[in-house]
Amino acid sequence: MTDATKLKALENVHRFFQDGGFADALAKRVAYRSMSGPDAKDDDLLPYYHEILEPDLTAMGFRCSYLQNPVAGASPFLLAERIESPDFLTVLTYGHGDVVPGYDDQWEEGLSPWSLTLRDDAWYGRGVADNKGQHLINLTALREVIAARDGRLGFNLKALFELGEERSSPGLRQVCKERAQALAADLFIASDGPRVSKDQPTLFLGSRGSAVFELSCTPRAGGLHSGNWGGIMKNPGVVLASAIASMVDGKGRILVQDLLPPPIPTPVRDALARLKVDSESLGRKIDEDWGEPGFTAAERLLGWNSLEVLTLHAGNYAKPVNAIPPAAYAHLQLRFVVGTNWTAIEDIVRTHLDQAGFTDVQVKLIRGSPATRLDPASSWVSWAKAAVKDVMGTEPAVVPNLGGTVPNDVFSDILGLPTVWIPHSYPGCKQHAANEHLPLSIVEQGLAMMVSVFWELGEAAALDACNRHRATPVA
Ligand SMILES: [Zn+2]
Prior knowledge:
The protein has helices at 4-18, 21-30, 42-59, 132-148, 172-178, 226-229, 236-245, 266-273, 279-282, 297-302, 345-355, 379-392, 409-414, 440-457, 460-471, and strands spanning 63-67, 77-82, 90-96, 117-119, 122-124, 156-162, 187-190, 202-204, 206-207, 209-217, 224-225, 306-314, 323-324, 328-336, 362-369, 372-373, 397-399, 419-421, 437-439. By secondary structure, the chain is an alpha+beta fold. A six-stranded mixed β-sheet has the order 1-2-6-3-7-18, with helices on one face.
């Protein structure tokens, strides 16, 4: 790295961090109680747009507009556009200003969800990791690149924000379909979710999908005395447990072939082989004998599907009585990777249950969202790796997809974009719980990485990566 402009932007962003500018900006954002949940109110949410994001983005030369949410009662989307030339690359980024509830009384002594506190080299407060701190890092880096380049970027940038991510992004899918033209771009880059570990800069390229379905066995309306009827009347608890056991064994191995993905593609397998995914990196002893036999932990967690029992219910657990319960229910969840035929999950499970003799077990899909994964062999991935390595000295970890689920299909499938996520958080950040925090080291590295990424997007190599990506047939 020799470019003086890039060095200047890196120096300035470092100074902003050192001088407390970043902490002040983060504290201001954390103080907004922009909670989204079943009873979210626009009065709590919209000020984050009007008082924080819109002034910030406008000062950086963005033109801001609001896209009405097609879902009644859900907050609008903020679209900020900064178009320098129709000939330039266009990048779409994304963030969310809503947070989960504070759970104020559960925080450690001296900490509060709504005021930023520095403790043990980390900032504590609701939203520091999810997602206020993450998009603040990106916007701060962007501002320094614009300043260092005398008011220009060398690429076009569109930024989409929402206030409903924590309640499953109502309307996001629909608005991206309806406004595909306004959101059109060449590349998607955003920050959310965790790194693979605290000290390892990370790119992730998609996420596993999730399908939650209910299994039920409801042979009769009331319970039956187990002494008078046991042995001649079927027990729905036994039937349901057996049905589940026919789908996933006692070691977590999925037994229904059609609930599995195709073999792991070579570029994905290679990327997974370079990741450190073990008890040490995850901070918790993992079960070596759980999941698909013969697979590494990285392959089991990120390259394969898992079938979980989320709930399991029959009878009255608190008060067992001598009765055959009238019904049994369970919620199961399939976490799946790209290539899984998840939209047919009801039919797949139905066929399996019928063949296995469980015709009296009903299946119903409750909710689902697709899996996504940019090919790790894409030229955009090597481009992003180089941009990170330029300031970090080493290449980032490349996670083909997160184990969890983010609404990445909106960007990858609906808008058709190559998606590169650069997370500024880590697995221990307590996101969604009390004591949410963001280590200073991650902020400092994140700022430098994003300066590099935004700076490099204005260079010829980015255009080249874009052209090579387009020339590669989609696998
Ligand atoms: Zn969240």
